[in-house]
């Protein structure tokens, strides 16, 4: 069995745990943000609808700011107020509403899971974190814990990015916070800390603290309701970690939770010494030629051709201007020729490279891809239909384009 973690990294004093819960919950009651899914979770008598609302909000909140999510959440719940309504939606409608939130597969998976609840679970949401994770596609350990604690009152902890930061600071955990040893330890800690009488509020309070006070760059330690329990803060004030009863090689030996000996505490960073992450892989660099094909529609207004992306992979099923990934370091002339050949193959009619007008470049950063779109335009006199065997396509006005399931990157284009 692995050695137990050193005491410094634990919450081993029940009185301290109790005090931390009280302070955190009192702060949450005073300062929590009013969010529509919180209001619904607190007042909705139907447990399945509570679970559904929290689930939708949690999936939307992954990697997206609260301020952005509110509008999407409200529109979603208005359109599909229940699991049953979502189960009947088409993927196209889901993609249209999701457009701009990023990570499009999350919306698709949410809808697939809703269909599963309706068709295989008689419309009843699983009630525990274990069952939610086991039975619902796209629901991981975090989302399952959030739904179970907030909607059903299960005393189970959650660990997301905000919680990682807060717990690593509270207990001076400086080893790579994405390593399995640290992640396992943080889950254990979250499960020890969670308040059994108000688990949903406790979990939301811990996340809220990370989102509004214990923020990544300039945490507001002076206003923090749990600063008296925070070892990083004490270390910043007093220059060294508090003494603990029985650990003694922690921080100097090979403790799996302390910062590596090669990167010791840096006093200029203060509490932001924690958490630490292994250096990220640099994003993949991609270059894509894209062409805005334009024609005059029957009412005289311009129309644009959009095509649908494949149903798997990046931006699956979304619509875009006809596009072609390019090899790196191509000359501009060559890029233009390749795009013309691609359009010609799609449209089945000649396209002259010199007829393509270069408009400019648009850079869009996906989480792991640095994408440059090289944008051209082409005005067409007659009608054009793309070979439907290659990909579905349609002509849209500017308004229709914005209402379609197109990515933020294409809107920039
Ligand atoms: Fe975070 Fe500072 Fe509070 Fe510690 S005292 S939990 S570092 S805000």
Automatic annotation (TrEMBL):
Cofactor(s) this protein requires: [4Fe-4S] cluster
Transmembrane segments: none
GO biological process terms on file: base-excision repair; mismatch repair
Enzyme class label: hydrolase
Top-rank taxon: Eukaryota
Catalytic activity: Hydrolyzes free adenine bases from 7,8-dihydro-8-oxoguanine:adenine mismatched double-stranded DNA, leaving an apurinic site
GO terms for cellular component: mitochondrion; nucleus
GO terms of molecular function: 4 iron, 4 sulfur cluster binding; 8-oxo-7,8-dihydroguanine DNA N-glycosylase activity; adenine/guanine mispair binding; metal ion binding; oxidized purine DNA binding; purine-specific mismatch base pair DNA N-glycosylase activity
All residue ranges annotated as the HhH-GPD domain in the record: 60-212
Keyword terms: 4Fe-4S, DNA damage, DNA repair, Glycosidase, Hydrolase, Iron, Iron-sulfur, Metal-binding, Mitochondrion, Nucleus
One Pfam family cited in the UniProt record for this chain: HHH
SMART domains: ENDO3c (SM00478), FES (SM00525)
EC numbers for this chain: 3.2.2.31
Free-text remark on how the cofactor is bound: Binds 1 [4Fe-4S] cluster.
Cellular compartment(s): Mitochondrion; Nucleus
Family membership: Belongs to the Nth/MutY family.
Main function: Involved in oxidative DNA damage repair. Initiates repair of A*oxoG to C*G by removing the inappropriately paired adenine base from the DNA backbone. Possesses both adenine and 2-OH-A DNA glycosylase activities.
Protein name: Adenine DNA glycosylase
Organism: Alaudala cheleensis (Asian short-toed lark)
Lineage: Eukaryota, Metazoa, Chordata, Craniata, Vertebrata
Gene: Mutyh
């Amino acid at each position: 069995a692995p050695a137990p973690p050193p005491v410094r990294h634990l919450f081993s004093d029940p009185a301290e745990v109790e005090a931390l819960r009280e302070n955190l919950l009192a702060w949450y009651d005073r300062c929590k943000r009013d969010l529509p899914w919180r209001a619904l979770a607190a007042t909705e008598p139907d447990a399945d609808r509570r679970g559904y609302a929290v689930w939708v909000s949690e999936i939307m909140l992954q990697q997206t700011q609260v301020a952005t999510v509110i509008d999407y959440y409200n529109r979603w719940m208005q359109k599909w107020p229940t699991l049953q309504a979502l189960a009947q939606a088409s993927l196209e409608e889901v993609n249209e509403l999701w457009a701009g939130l990023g990570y499009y597969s999350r919306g698709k998976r949410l809808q697939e899971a809703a269909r599963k609840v309706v068709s295989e679970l008689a419309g009843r949401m699983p009630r525990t974190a274990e069952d939610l994770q086991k039975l619902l596609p796209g629901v991981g350990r975090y989302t399952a814990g959030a739904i179970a604690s907030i909607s059903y009152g299960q005393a189970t902890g959650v660990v997301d990015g905000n919680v990682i930061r807060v717990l690593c600071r509270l207990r001076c955990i400086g080893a790579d916070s994405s390593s399995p040893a640290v992640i396992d330890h943080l889950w254990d800690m979250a499960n020890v800390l969670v308040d059994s009488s108000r688990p949903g509020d406790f979990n939301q309070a811990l996340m809220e603290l990370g989102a509004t006070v214990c923020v990544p760059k300039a945490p507001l330690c002076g206003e923090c309701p749990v600063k008296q329990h925070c070892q990083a803060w004490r270390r910043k004030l007093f220059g060294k970690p508090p003494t603990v009863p029985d650990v003694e090689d922690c921080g100097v030996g090979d403790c799996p939770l302390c910062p590596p000996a090669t990167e010791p505490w840096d006093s200029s960073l203060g509490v932001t010494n924690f958490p630490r992450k292994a250096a990220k892989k640099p994003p993949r660099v991609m270059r894509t030629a894209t062409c805005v094909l334009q024609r005059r529609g029957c009412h005289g207004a311009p129309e644009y051709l959009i095509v649908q992306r494949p149903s798997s992979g990046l931006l699956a099923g979304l619509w875009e201007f006809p596009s072609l990934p390019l090899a790196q370091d191509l000359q501009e002339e060559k890029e233009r020729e390749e795009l013309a050949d691609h359009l010609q193959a799609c449209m089945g009619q000649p396209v002259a490279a010199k007829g393509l007008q270069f408009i400019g470049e648009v850079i869009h950063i996906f989480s792991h891809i640095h994408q440059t779109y090289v944008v051209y335009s082409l005005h067409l006199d007659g009608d054009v239909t793309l070979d439907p065997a290659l990909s579905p396509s349609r002509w849209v006005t500017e308004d229709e384009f914005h209402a379609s399931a197109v990515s933020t990157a294409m809107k920039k284009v």
